[in-house]
From TrEMBL:
SUPFAM superfamilies: NAD(P)-binding Rossmann-fold domains (SSF51735). InterPro entries: NAD(P)-bd_dom, NAD(P)-bd_dom_sf. This is NAD(P)-binding domain-containing protein. The lineage of its organism: Bacteria, Pseudomonadati, Bacteroidota, Cytophagia, Cytophagales. PANTHER family: OXIDOREDUCTASE HTATIP2. It comes from Flammeovirga pectinis. The keyword Glycosyltransferase does not apply. Pfam families: NAD_binding_10 (PF13460).
């Protein structure tokens, strides 16, 4: 009985802004499914599905907020837009800076001790980039309010697979930052963050004893992801990036050799190596980007633990590389026929290049299969 009373007394009331957005929707579900959460107070422009835990407030004009008083433990804002969606820099500033500042002041007025908001890596009030400048200005304004605990989440790019509209710039940025983040541990803060990981991290952090002003980067937010808990997937991620980088550099090098060389024999050697390098670059990049999606599909469908998900992934990888081994062996045979069965120098060069590239890929793939079988 005493424990039940303590549990009830420790239950939290959370105020959530942005409950209809990509991150906010997921966070809302986590909160209402959490037995430690007593109530979620939401402020939205449109009605949410009814739930006993949700205290809904429909606001067509957020200036109405100042007339509303609540009692809560924490305020979370998952608000954010894009310049395209906002229509102008001024409209973007109103949402991503001014509205969040207004909510922070309201939080202080209602004597709520914790304020959580999503900002961005590189946020700086002096930045020349309008997006980073606005995020930086927002941070400075929120800090000036003097809330007992203020938490800024600074992801690089937020990945949301269920957006209704396709955002080309965001997709290109995700690819760029995913690759950059693999260069060095120093760049892990630029790694894209899935909205599910973002909401999980915020949810967990609501139960920490936060004090003062705290910042969390992508590397810290991604620490809750399955990928960070699996040694095998971390190795596969690293290997895929190496393959992408090696293939990309060698593609540029072989393109230069093929273009600049006057020897048809050298051109012949360069052509299959160029082709193999381009394929290695594509395969490495595709694997790198598909790992999180494959993990998510396994978790969603089977709700498995780390070892079994690793085993399923290994099985898929081995099947794929066994097919590649067959292709590489056939390439060796074809290269030998071209290299030694014809007198044409260009064909001989192609044959030799095919043998070299197939042999190197055979060594790489055999090693990858051997390492995978150790899991």
């Amino acid at each position: 009985m005493k424990n039940e009373i303590e549990m009830i007394n420790n239950m939290k009331t959370i105020v959530l802004f942005g409950a209809t957005g990509a991150t906010g929707q997921i966070l809302l579900q986590k909160l209402i499914n959490d037995d430690q959460i007593k109530k979620v107070i939401t402020f939205t422009r449109k009605k949410l599905d009814d739930n006993d835990k949700i205290d809904q407030n429909i606001l067509t004009d957020f200036s109405q907020l100042k007339t509303i008083n609540v009692e809560a433990d924490s305020v979370v804002t998952c608000l954010g837009t894009t310049l395209k969606k906002a229509g102008s820099i001024e409209a973007f500033e109103e949402i991503d800076r001014d509205l969040i500042f207004q909510i922070a002041e309201w939080t202080k007025k209602n004597q709520i001790k914790e304020f959580h908001t999503i900002s961005s890596v590189g946020a700086d009030a002096e930045a020349s980039n309008y997006y980073l400048r606005v995020k930086g200005e927002m941070q400075e304004l929120v800090k000036s309010v003097g809330i007992e605990s203020t938490v800024f989440y600074q992801p690089s790019i937020l990945k949301a697979g269920n957006r209704e509209e396709f955002r080309l710039k965001e997709s290109a940025s995700q690819l760029f930052f995913q690759l950059i983040s693999n260069l060095s541990p120093k760049f892990e803060k630029y790694a894209p963050v899935d909205v599910n990981e973002m909401s999980t991290f915020i949810h967990q952090n609501l139960f920490n004893n936060n004090h003062g002003i705290t910042f969390y980067s992508s590397s810290e937010i991604n620490s809750v992801s399955f990928l960070s808990q699996s040694e095998y997937f971390s190795k596969e991620k690293s290997t895929s990036f190496s393959l992408f980088l090696f293939g990309g550099v060698n593609t540029v090098l072989q393109s230069a050799i093929y273009s600049l060389s006057s020897s048809v024999f050298i051109k012949g050697i360069s052509l299959p190596i160029l082709t193999a390098s381009a394929l290695a670059c594509i395969v490495g990049g595709v694997i790198l980007l598909q790992i999180p999606q494959h993990i998510k599909s396994l978790q969603k469908e089977l709700e498995l633990g780390v070892p079994l998900i690793e085993a399923l992934r290994v099985s898929k990888v081995i099947k794929t590389f066994n097919k590649l081994l067959t292709t590489e062996l056939l390439t060796l045979v074809g290269g030998a026929i071209l290299g030694f069965g014809f007198s044409n120098q260009f064909l001989q060069g192609i044959g030799l290049g095919a043998i070299l590239s197939a042999f190197i890929l055979l060594l790489i793939d055999t090693n990858l299969i051997a390492n995978a079988k150790k899991i």
